[in-house]
Here is the input.
Amino acid sequence: MVGLRGVGKTVLLDRVRDETEATGIQTVRIEAPENRSLPALLAPELRQALLRLSRNEQAKDLSQRALRGLAGFAKALKVKYHDIEVGFDFDPEPGLADNGDLEHDLQALLEAAGAAAQKAGTALVLFIDELQYVTEEELAALIVALHRTAQRRVPVVLIGAGLPQLRGQMGRAKSYAERLFDFPGIGPLLEPAARQAIEKPVMAQNVNVDEDALVQIVRDTRGYPYFLQEWGKHAWDAAEASPITRHDVDVASKAAIAALDDSFFRVRFDRLTPVEKKYLRAMADLGAGPHRSGDIALILKRKVTSLGPTRSQLIAKGMIWSPSHGDTAFTVPLFDEFMRRIMPGDDWRY
Here is the structure.
C-alpha cells in the first residue's frame, strides 16, 4: 500500500496505473473531488472491475458473489451517502456488506472482491488521486479495509496520490496508517535530473541548449517537473534556431509565468475567500516558506488563535500544509510569487 504526494503525483500515478493495467491486473481508477463520497466514487468503478473478473471461468462464482455484496453495500449506504449511483447486476446477498456501516461493509466488500481476483490469478489495485479530499471517516474505513485484506492475504492494493498533508490525515484517521503505507514524496528534481529533463527531448530532435540557458531554466523552475515542462515548451516555441539561448529562456519565462497565472495558479486563487487570500498574501510577504504561524499573524496584526479557522480552511482546500508543528507552507511551488503579482502593493493589508 503506497501513498504518493507532491508535484507531479498525478502524472506518475497515471503511468503506474497504465503499466499495471498492461499486465492484466484489475484496476479501479478514481479521482476524489471535494463534493463526492468515497462509496459513490468506488461503487461504479468496482462494479466494472468485478464484471471483468466474472468473465474468468475460475473466478466467476466469487466475482458474482462480490457483485451481490456490492449491491447490498450500495443499497445499505445510500441512506447515508445519497450520491451513490450504481447499476445492480445481481440481487444482494443478505449479510454481505449490507450493515449500513461503512467501516464494516467496506471490509467485507473488498475482501470478497479480492478473493475473486485471487481466484483469477491476479490482483485488484485501487488507484485514487486527490486522496486528501476523502473525509477522515471514509479514509479510516478505507485504511481498516485494506488492513483486513492484508491480514487475510487477499490481493487488494491501494496506490493513492495526494497533497503533502495526506500523511498527517491518514495518521489522524487511523494511528497505525503509517505502518501500513509508504509515503514517497514527489518534489523537485535534483539538478542533474532537471537538466536531463530539458536536454534529452531536444537533443533527440538535433537541437542543443546553451549552458546558461539550461542553468536559467533549472533556476526559474526550482526543478519542479510540471514547471520544467512549461518552461521547456515555451523555450522551444521562442527559439528560432539551435541552440536555445538565454534570450529564448527569458522570453519563455514571461510566457510560462503568464500561462501559469491564467490557469494553474488562477484556478486555485479563485476558490479562496477574501480572508483566505489575505492570509496567503501575508505568507507570500515572508517568501516561499515554510513560515511560523506566529510570523504570519504578526504581519496580519492578529492573534494566532484567531487565524486558526482560516488556516484550517486553507489546509482543507489543499492550499497550504503543515510540514511540522506550527509551520505553514504552500502546497504549490512558486505560489508566493503569484500572490505578490496578483495582489501587489499594500492595499491588501487594509
About this structure: The first helix runs from residue 9 to 22. Confidence is low (pLDDT under 50) at residues 1-7. The first strand starts at residue 2 and ends at 6. The radius of gyration is 24 Å.
